[in-house]
Amino acid sequence: MIRDIVVIGGGASGLAASISAKKRNKDVLLIEREESLGGILNQCIHNGFGLEVFKEEYTGPEYAHKFIEEFMDLKIDYLVNTTVIKLDKNNDDFIITLSSKELGIRNITARSVIISSGCYERTRGQISMPGDRPNGVITAGSAQRYLNINGYMVGKKVFILGSGDIGLIMARRMYLEGAEVLGVAEIMPYSNGLNRNIVQCLNDFDIPLYLSHTVTNVEADEDKRLSAITIQQVDERFNPIPNTEKHFEVDTLLLSIGLIPDITLLDDLYVEVDPKTKSAKINQAYETSVKGLFICGNSLQVHDLVDNVSKESSRAGLSASDYLDGLVTNRKKIAINPGKNILYVAPQYLDFGWVEKDLLVSYRSSKKIEKALVKVYQGEKLIYQKRRAFIVPAEMETLTFSYLELDQNQDIMIEIEEV
Ligand SMILES: Cc1cc2nc3c(=O)[nH]c(=O)nc-3n(C[C@H](O)[C@H](O)[C@H](O)COP(=O)(O)OP(=O)(O)OC[C@H]3O[C@@H](n4cnc5c(N)ncnc54)[C@H](O)[C@@H]3O)c2cc1C
After folding, report:
1. Which CATH number does 330-419 carry?
2. Where are the domains of the chain?
3. For ligand 1, is residue 297 a contact (CB within 6 Å)?
4. Residue percentage of the chain with pLDDT more than 90
5. Which of 128, 231, 350, 377 lies 20 to 30 Å from 318 when distance is taken between CA atoms?
6. Is the pLDDT of residue 193 over 90?
7. Dihedrals φ, ψ of 402, to 5°?
């Protein structure tokens, strides 16, 4: 049997994509490697989820539950405890190899695939951190899982490197569980987390944030457990400034130093990758350079808000359905390029084959800008602009405009002007 759509990953993204495709009467199979659906939301027991989609604030598991309920009501097929280990193509179809607790190893064929596999955390090995290699240096997301899912307290005297949202949320979580949280160091001159998290997770608990600082030494005791760290201020080229050392006796260092989209399954498909997002390049329908292969959620771009994951993935599910219905014609595309002060844009292509859609572009700024003017050009022609009082790299921005009048032969460029 050939499935219409196989969705890989059962987090916020995979659930929303499956639901929208199923509502278009497609035969959908969702595959999730964990024993339950919900993805990373299951370990995010704090609130702050759903304000845009439901106009109410939920915890992560509550937000997931809303979608799981709808998913179950629609009687969508799914497999848990099942990992997709390989993705390949056979002419126009996809061969999905999975390893399942119940089924063992087997292949499934599908006409279309949606990747919703989330992202993974950068670890110590991916940054140069001098010093010993003791126990007690772990990623903030792993610590969150140990604490919130498994019930293990990972340490008593904690320092956090990186001010991404997971680090900030874990600073508060560890504090509330009785740990001493001595501070958060951030190498950039601004935080990489949402402003609300700086206020609610650090300021409200008097946890100091050391901007333009990084860890420059790690010390182990005789049991090879972390005993102390040194942080230092850095200059604009991120070099440590002498005589700015601060020493902290800690047993735990949590790393919140970035998330990277998980696209390991794309390895065999020669998908075009954007070095800026570290994920597949897509058109406005979330379709990769391989026809019928879609990607969304954190495996496409790291999102700060789950509501945007759900909205984006719901669109991807509809696109996969349009693809199967043969609604895509023409296939003439132009590039959408990041210009001044833009870190990345997604989609990277506008494909005129998908004429019925507005163009929704996500982007992040490369620096903090107050009084910003976001401009979209096609060649020399300014085709769209909007003012923003404040733009920070930590918050994903979006803009939407119709592209029906656009020139099909000239690329688009998006930039942010400081006004
Ligand atoms: C610590 C933290 C705090 C956050 N706080 C907030 C907040 O307060 N408010 C808010 O709106 N958003 C918040 N977010 C963001 C939001 O929760 C995420 O962006 C969103 O849940 C990501 O959904 P996803 O489906 O893309 O990824 P995930 O939830 O990671 O789902 C991916 C799923 O794919 C599965 N998978 C991966 N590979 C395979 C494979 N090969 N085979 C089978 N299954 C596979 C994984 O097991 C996983 O379940 C937070 C995120 C984190 C990490």
Report:
1. 2.60.40
2. 1-122+258-328, 123-257, 330-419
3. yes
4. 87
5. 377
6. no
7. -80, 145
pTM of the model: 0.95
Q: What are the pLDDT digits (tens) for 206-239?
A: 999 999 999 999 999 999 999 999 999 999 999 9
- What single-letter amino acid sits at 231? I
45 and 22 in contact (C-beta within 8 Å)? no
Closest ligand 1 atom, CA of 15?
25
- State in Å, rounded, how far the first CA of the chain is from the last one: 58
Phi first, then psi: give them for residue 262, nearest 5 degrees: -90, 100
What is the C-alpha separation between 36 and 6, in angstroms, rounded?
Answer: 17
Q: Phi, psi at residue 384, to the nearest 5°?
A: -165, 140
Minimum-distance ligand 1 atom for the alpha carbon of 304: 15
Asked if residues 102 and 81 have their Cβ atoms less than 8 Å apart, the reply is: yes
308/328 Cα distance (integer angstroms): 25
**What's the CATH number of domain 123-257, 3.50.50.60, 3.90.180.10, 3.40.50.150, 2.40.10.120?**
3.50.50.60
Q: Closest ligand 1 atom to the C-alpha of 303?
A: 19
> What is the distance in A from the centroid of ligand 1 to the CA of 40?
4
Given ligand 1 and candidates 117, 296, 311, which is best to mutate, with the most ligand atoms within 8 Å of its CB? 117
Instruction: Please state the atom number of ligand 1 nearest to the C-alpha of residue 40.
Output: 29
- Tally Cβ neighbours within 10 Å of residue 132: 14
* 413 close to ligand 1 (CB < 6 Angstrom): no
